[in-house]
Amino acid sequence: MNDVLVRARDLQVHFPVRSKGLRRKQTGAVRAVDGVDLEVRRGETLGLVGESGCGKSTLGNALLRLVEPTGGTVEFDGADVTAMSSSALRALRRRAVMVFQDPYASLDPRMSVGQTIAEPLQVHGLARGARARAERVAELLDLVGLDPSVAGRYPHEFSGGQRQRVGIARALAGEPDFVVCDEAIASLDVSVQAQVLNLLRSLQRRLGLTLLFVSHDLAAVRHLSDRIAVMYLGRVVEVASAADLTASPQHPYTQALLSAVPVPSPSRERTRERIVLSGDVPSAARIPSGCRFRTRCPQVFEPCDSVVPALQEVTGGHVAACHLHGVVGAPERLTR
């Protein structure tokens, strides 16, 4: 059996930029995802982390073909998702699902939570009959830590954390293999975030799920994930196991992200080095030449302004897209 469940190759998602006026000619493109190579292994939790606007949510949507890729390929269990017919996509929707960021906006306020969870069962022809569906809904509510008696209630009667549990139950209704959690804890209180993270970890182990956990919160990603992929301005710049990436980050952007994560020791927190990046993230409609991180990188040197760095292995299983690796001798620094 292939160890990789989902594989993206040179994946691109570009959105057109049009001029104002009646004719609205295309004047450029926002390169939200711009040549991503990524693998998600069976049974693992892969964290995808980066600043807001880096393209990570768009990438998650593209893997499920909820947005149409501009170029490249996505394979799910060996099948080309980008070439699937509508009937094949319908079958994929059962095996690969999304848990959305906003647990209120993603639930229909006119449907009870029982009806919401039962909807995928009806769509995919599972648990036929009202009684069988009701029993399955009760099982799913219990699975996510909610009392089955709440099935008749409506979304506005629940807290944010409870609504997110309903969203998770709905996603699990079709017994999927692959779940994309798109900023699934971002809108929740900190105490509730920990509960949902622990629930996701428990479900992943209990059901053998493959998770892609998308978040800007590196601390949460590190807590949940087996491996972590770091994304910057439309491209993946580093991938490693959670332990390796935390202990020895190889890309300057990852180093800056980790330096911003608080540590629980007050004495270490006061003395540890922080890397403060200068400037703002460039627009995805105007990508810098060469390395796209060079305009903010504290270690920029000569090749960075003209040569696009490729992902290369630094140590076993740890890859990074940075010219600092493989450079012989002392690099000549550039001033920005």
The coarse overall form would be globular
The chain-level structural class is alpha/beta
Spatial arrangement of strands, main beta sheet: 6-7-8-3-9-10-12-11
Alpha carbon gap, first and last residue: 49 Å
Helix fraction bin: 25-40%
Task: Give the overall pLDDT as a whole number.
Answer: 91
Low-confidence stretches: none
Described by strand count, sense and barrel closure, the largest sheet is: 8 strands, mixed
Fill in the CATH topology: Rossmann fold
The CATH superfamily appears as P-loop containing nucleotide triphosphate hydrolases
| CATH-scheme architecture | 3-Layer(aba) Sandwich
How many discrete domains?
1
Q: According to CATH, what is the class?
A: Alpha Beta
Bin the strand percentage. Answer: 15-25%
| Number of helical regions | 10
SSE succession = EEEHEEHEHHHEHEHEEHHHEE
Radius of gyration: 22 Å
**How many β-strands, per DSSP?**
12
Quick take:
By secondary structure, this protein is α/β, with parallel strands linked by helices. 30% of the residues lie in helices and 24% in strands.
Task: Describe the protein.
With 336 residues, the chain is an alpha/beta fold. It has a single domain (4-17, 27-253), classed as Rossmann fold (3-Layer(aba) Sandwich). Helices cover 30% and strands 24% of the residues. It contains ten helices and twelve strands. The chain has helices at 56-63, 86-95, 113-123, 130-143, 160-172, 190-207, 218-224, 242-247, 252-259, 266-271; strands spanning 4-18, 26-41, 45-49, 71-76, 79-80, 96-99, 178-182, 210-215, 227-232, 235-241, 312-315, 318-320. Strands 6-7-8-3-9-10-12-11 form an eight-stranded mixed beta sheet, with helices on both faces. Strands 2-1-4-5 form a four-stranded antiparallel beta sheet. Helix 3 (113-123) packs parallel to helix 5 and helix 4 (130-143) packs across helix 5 (160-172). The longest helix is centred in the middle third of the chain and has 18 residues, at 190-207. The chain is globular and about 70 Å long. The termini are far apart.
